[in-house]
Amino acid sequence: MVDYKKPLPAIHEETRPFWEKAKKHELWLQKCRDCGKFRFYPRSICPNCFSYNTEWSRVSGRGKIYSFTVSNRPPLQAFQKDVPYCLALVDLEEGVRMMTNIVECQWEDLKIDMPVEVVFEDVTPLISLPKFRPTPVI
Amino acid sequence: MGTLTKKAAIVGVAESDCGIVPDKSQMELIAQATSRALNDAGLKKSDIDGLCCSGIFGLATMEVGEYLNIQPRFTDATHAGGASFEMHVQHAAAAIAAGICHTVLICYAATTYSDRKRGVFLTALNEPTSSMAQFEMPYGGWLTGSYALAAQRHMYQYGTTSEQLAEIAVATRKWASLNPLAMMRTPITIADVIHSPMICSPLHLLDCCLVTDAGGAIIVTSAERARNLRHPPAWILGCGESHSHMGISSMPDLTCTSAKISGEAAFKMAGLTAKDIDVAELYDCFTITVLLQLEDLGFCRKGEGGFFVTGQTTAPGGKFPMNTNGGGLSFTHSGMYGIFLLIEAVRQLRGTCGERQVPGARVVLCNGIGVALSSSSTVILGRD
Ligand SMILES: [Zn+2]
């Protein structure tokens, strides 16, 4: 995987716990101990109440699609072999929104509000990207 | 809150060579636009004592100041993407009203089309260091994708259709066909837009702006000076600015932009309402961008943008003249389009737009939008 050419996060201290847990295929978010709100992306201060009193907690990985697009043009050459790919915003149960890719899905089945769940893609020895797939109907 | 109404005016405007300009650098285009804008105003470089610029490059004002040999008393490199230049107008008017300077040059250029041909890419994007970028770029997040996400959401919430978005592209092309400088002048139909290649669903190729080389410059000066120059002043009646996020995943509601804040501020300062606007120049990097601004600026209600533009409302002869130079969709777009909104607005107020002149244009609204629907800035201009 040394030839992975797509952009990779330049991890820093604020975001390191997120990426370390992702490597273990776990989704963890920061939660403010004062106002109780989850936040994303990770940052040391609560953007809601400005408290530094923060904990990390493992979350369900379940959410629903807020919006999506199927991209036929690569933003960078490195994405050329991926097109068409689905870029999406997913609202997690915990009330935060993140950008991701929807995988394991036929593009014509994509719908806003579709329930999705996290899966992890190991893209390098250090980085696993959380992506989402439609929640299997039980 | 203080007011800047009629404290300053735009007195000179010009584009550089626009379109495909492979033989000129960004700085050459800035110099060319500036020298033309000074000629247009009937002013000299030595009259300039304020400088505002912004660009993809880093230390914009100092680079431009050095190249043009300008040492300003007032300097502002506010960078909010394509919305930067309407912000610069507000900042320039405020500085002039405060007596900090008399005459401000606002300028910009980029050789985006030719840079691509030359293989110049933004390689720094390969390892995103900011928190925002490190949670978007690994997924192939990019500007077109961001606007497509907004379009998809607007369609879902309000039933907006691809045909309605196409109305904007078709009307804008009609205006471009009346602008000799426009890059794309051949008329198109709604079917042409819908059958053009899908770039990022639901946005087709013809829902997206051009990629060109282009620059522009405008000269803002005090009320006293403005009255004695070559052209009647384009008075700054009201301004507003805001931003709500950087990356699209942090946008609170994909169907509402900060044009709501910037527009309200500008209308309030000007003492005007949406009904008073004769011509609108709205940032059109994508058709959806225009639709959201029409709603957020109050030209129609939220969710009704699609109905508003149906039936070529915004085309030449329509009841809402908009993007009369052909816009970023059909005239030119080198990356940060906002300065061209102002240039066209001033010409409409002067009545010098030839075939595309809107009869009796007395009040024109310009609205810039930057980055991923992140920033908005509004300037309302009027003539005596
Ligand atoms: Zn908090």
Overall geometry of chain B: globular
Order of helices and strands of chain A: HEEEEEEEE
Spatial extent as radius of gyration of chain B: 19 Å
Given helix and strand content, the structural type of chain A is: mainly beta
Strand percentage of chain A: 35-45%
> What is the terminal separation of chain B in angstroms?
24 Å
Per DSSP, the total helix count of chain B is 14
Query: What is the subunit organization of this protein?
Result: heterodimer
How large a portion of the residues of chain B is in β-strands, by DSSP E? Answer: 15-25%
Question: In sequence order, what are the helices and strands of chain B, one letter per element?
Answer: EHEHEHEHHHHHEEEHEHEHHHHEE
Strand element count of chain B: 11
What are the defining features of this structure?
heterodimer, A: 138 residues, mainly beta, five-stranded antiparallel sheet, three-stranded antiparallel sheet, 1 helix, 8 strands, 36% strand, B: 384 residues, alpha/beta, nine-stranded mixed sheet, two-stranded antiparallel ribbon, 11 strands, globular, binds zinc ion
Description:
The complex is a heterodimer of chains A (138) and B (384). With 138 residues, chain A is mostly beta strands. Chain A is 6% helix and 36% strand. Chain A has one helix at residues 16-23; strands at 28-32, 38-39, 54-58, 62-71, 85-92, 97-101, 115-122, 128-134. A five-stranded antiparallel sheet of chain A has the order 6-5-4-7-8. Chain A has a three-stranded antiparallel sheet with strand order 2-1-3, covered by helices on one side. The longest helix of chain A is centred in the first third of the chain and has 8 residues, at 16-23. Chain B is an alpha/beta fold and 384 residues long. Chain B contains 14 helices and eleven strands. Chain B has helices at residues 26-41, 60-68, 84-97, 112-117, 131-134, 143-158, 162-176, 190-195, 223-226, 259-270, 287-296, 305-309, 327-331, 338-350, and strands at residues 8-15, 50-53, 74-76, 103-111, 198-200, 203-204, 213-222, 234-243, 279-282, 363-370, 375-382. Chain B is globular and about 50 Å long. The chains are: A mainly beta (138), B alpha/beta (384). Chain A binds chain B through residues 5-12, 14-15, 40-43, 66-76, 78-79, 82, 85, 87-89, 97-101, 112, 123, 127, 129, 131, and chain B through 121, 125-129, 131-142, 144-145, 148-153, 156, 197-203, 247-250, 254. Zinc ion (ZN) binds at residues 32, 34-35, 37, 46, 48-49, 51 of chain A.
